[in-house]
Amino acid sequence: MRSREILTAVPVAFHENGDLDLDGSREILRFVAASGNEGAFVLGTTGEFPSLSFEERTALVTASIEELSPHMRVVVHVGAASTHEALRLVAQAREAGAKEIAVLTPYYLKATDQALLDYFTAVTNAADGLDVFIYVFRAVSGNFISNELMATLAALPNVVGAKVSDEPLEQIRAYRDVVPEGFLIYTGSDRDLGRAADYGAQGVISGVSSVLPKPFRALAAAHDSGDAAEIENAQRGVDEVVDAIAGNMGRMKAAYSLLGVRGGTTRMAIEAPSAEALAEIERVVALYR
Questions:
Q1: What's 264's DSSP letter?
Q2: What's residue 81's pLDDT?
């Protein structure tokens, strides 16, 4: 089974007035396409998906497939607060040419296990011909997939894996123990690229690697070599850029500006980086660009 893959969680560019910057978003996509990473995760949390209209998503998913699919896998996030909207997004992704989709749990209202099962059953049935990843992120969605429910979901048609964000690595292991052997699990914890494999993950879905992919590539290569000193040094590089960018889309946009990529600004309520944060971003961009 594959291990230590890096899928880039891709940001979306916005103009200063909040309008979608599609040309800037394409610049980001082209930058990601040249990263050497194995795949991309688009229209997810890093893409500020709750702020996007259906029409904006149509333009962005089309651009993502066009710019990225010649170079890497593309996983399109289609999760929504309702089954009705998620089914619309599945159809949208399919029409754009997606082959893989990820489905966040419904969010805002608390859902029972039966309600979650009903939601995922409807979505996975509609995804015939697409590979489906269950997306677990209870810190933002308010809903969690228990080990027992994950075992049930893993048996649904078209489900091939899961993305697990903001959970300890022990939760990755707990899921691994109840899913089929070929089931793919990715952590959303950027700095755990190396360690996650020991808990049964195949790799990481990383927003920080959207701007500074080289430390992540170096860490994956170090683990392939098995050299302990090389691994330790590469891990320090990943930790350094994760500390500076902190998974924050405002900081990612600041880094893009330094890299000559038109990342624009954020649309959601994200605080602009402080002068101290900007200085640290400038330092790590100079080191790891």
A1: B
A2: 98
